[in-house]
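Pinned message: reference record for Helix-turn-helix domain-containing protein
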Amino acid sequence: MLGGSNRMLSAQETADRLGISRRTLYNNWKSWGLKAHKVGGSLRFRERDVEAWLDTRAAA
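Predicted structure (tokens):
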């Protein structure tokens, strides 16, 4: 299911949605295959990518 929007979430918003700390997100996003975009010195995560990643985790 393709859910979410093109809205960009901050690392903190993404971590909150995943129920983890921001540090855990920063340490693991690449190995988890979660798509991120660098904006300035910060990571941003597209809402639809986070939702799709969660959907794949729930199906596993």
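Pinned by admin. Summary line: The radius of gyration is 11 Å.
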